[in-house]
């Protein structure tokens, strides 16, 4: 009887230890205090992890130091944080080396809908654009290594790459580039946060649409955690909780950008090399989403 009691206590202690074990993850922090792009990203990641607590156990999610995307990808490749999660395009992750994608397009295709900040000097001319050939006459600013750069250049646009995200707003306001095009998910937060900059103008006449899926990426040695996140995202998508969360995030932006009143230019984007899953099945058509 005494031996049985000891065994039960030992098993119980082992089970408590297993239950107490938690996975520590690190998410790339926003680049600046005004950077609102990570709000939905963190919520979606937490939702996926919450969905898999029963199967994978508890977790703790921390934020990294501030860094741009290029440095974040290198940091993930070097495994400098525990289970470091970085959102990036498929090609960006593949080219970094040593990273694996979570096979789910976290922004449901919405990131490819772009409207543009415009310089005061170019504003009137951009409003007169009617063809893609006319639009190619204007220079575009983008972040160094961003997935947009390859798409825009492949479609014949002049692109200036800048390493610091915040500097791009100043560049377009000062006329150093004509356009700085942002996702409809980002632009409202960015414009409101910089409402005191009178020369930072938002064009209301055009929109660009192109394929730019974004995925969570992790070091290949953290593949088991990446698979957990994928499982959780799929569970949340299928039960509707991810779509509900995404639409809550999207809803204020739709009336602000008013896609129905813009001339929409669709750009060709080559499919990511080596992609072996259908990410487009999750894409939303924002022109049909209700404000």
Description:
This protein has 291 residues and is an alpha/beta fold. 41% of the residues lie in helices and 19% in strands. The protein has 13 helices and twelve strands. It has helices at 2-20, 38-51, 53-56, 69-78, 90-96, 123-127, 132-135, 147-154, 165-173, 187-193, 223-238, 241-250, 253-257, and strands spanning 23-27, 59-63, 84-89, 99-101, 113-118, 139-143, 158-162, 179-183, 201-202, 206-209, 214-219, 263-266. The protein has a five-stranded mixed sheet with strand order 2-1-3-11-4. Helix 8 (147-154) links the parallel strand 6 (139-143) and strand 7 (158-162). Helix 2 (38-51) runs antiparallel to helix 12 (241-250). The longest helix is centred in the first third of the chain and has 19 residues, at 2-20. It is globular and about 60 Å long. The model is unreliable at 13-18 (pLDDT under 50).
């Amino acid at each position: 009887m005494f031996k049985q009691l000891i065994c039960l206590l030992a098993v119980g202690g082992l089970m408590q230890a297993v239950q107490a074990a938690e996975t520590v993850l690190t998410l790339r922090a926003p680049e600046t205090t005004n950077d609102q792009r990570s709000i939905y990203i963190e919520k979606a990641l937490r939702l996926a992890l919450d969905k898999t607590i029963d199967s994978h156990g508890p977790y703790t999610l921390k934020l990294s130091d501030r860094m741009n995307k290029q440095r974040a990808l290198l940091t993930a490749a070097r495994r400098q944080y525990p289970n470091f999660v970085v959102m990036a395009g498929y090609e960006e992750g593949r080219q970094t080396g040593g990273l694996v994608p979570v096979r789910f397009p976290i922004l449901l295709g919405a990131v490819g809908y772009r409207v543009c900040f415009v310089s005061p000097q170019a504003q009137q001319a951009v409003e007169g654009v009617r063809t893609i050939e006319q639009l190619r006459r204007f220079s575009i600013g983008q972040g160094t290594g961003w997935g947009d750069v390859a798409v825009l250049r492949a479609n014949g646009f002049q692109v200036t790459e800048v390493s610091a995200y915040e500097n791009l707003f100043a560049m377009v306001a000062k006329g150093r580039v004509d356009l700085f095009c942002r996702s409809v998910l980002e632009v409202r937060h960015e414009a409101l946060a910089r409402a005191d900059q009178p020369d930072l103008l938002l064009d209301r006449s055009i929109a660009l649409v192109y394929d730019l899926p974004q995925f969570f990426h992790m070091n290949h040695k953290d593949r088991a955690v990446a698979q957990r996140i994928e499982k959780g995202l799929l569970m949340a998508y299928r039960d509707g909780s991810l779509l509900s969360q995404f639409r809550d995030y999207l809803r204020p932006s739709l009336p602000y950008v008013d896609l129905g009143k813009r001339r929409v230019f669709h750009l060709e984007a080559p499919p990511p090399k080596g992609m072996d899953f259908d990410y487009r099945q999750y894409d939303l058509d924002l022109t049909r989403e209700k404000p």
